[in-house]
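Input (structure):
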């Protein structure tokens, strides 16, 4: 079955950077668009970024555009989210999503 495992979260100061990873298994990774979502405390889960099968079509939520970069390595069945210039409002649990399945999430906390 589909398995998605996020990693790379942590505590970082404002202005800092983190790189999240999503390791996928149980399906043919290279055939599917992959997405990142996030859920801040007390808020609904929101779409953050998406990347097409070959990585040639990428889209971002306005709130992260210019600061975050989504990528994928189809040979490694892994998706990434490079997060730069982090702000306190980026604090959330970050999830990867594919084929109606979610990972367990990884916590990102931006605080001084």
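Output (sequence):
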């Amino acid at each position: 079955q589909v398995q998605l495992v996020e990693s790379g979260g942590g505590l970082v100061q404002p202005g800092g950077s983190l790189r999240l990873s999503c390791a996928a298994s149980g399906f043919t990774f290279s055939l599917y668009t992959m997405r990142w979502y996030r859920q801040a405390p007390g808020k609904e889960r929101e779409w953050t970024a998406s990347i097409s099968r070959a990585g040639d079509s990428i889209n971002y939520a306005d709130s992260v555009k210019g600061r975050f970069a989504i990528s994928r390595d189809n040979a490694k069945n892994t998706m990434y989210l490079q997060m730069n210039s982090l702000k306190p409002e980026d604090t959330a649990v970050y999830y990867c999503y594919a084929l109606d399945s979610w990972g367990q999430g990884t916590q990102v906390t931006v605080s001084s």
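Notes: The chain is about 0% helix and 50% strand. The mean pLDDT is 97.
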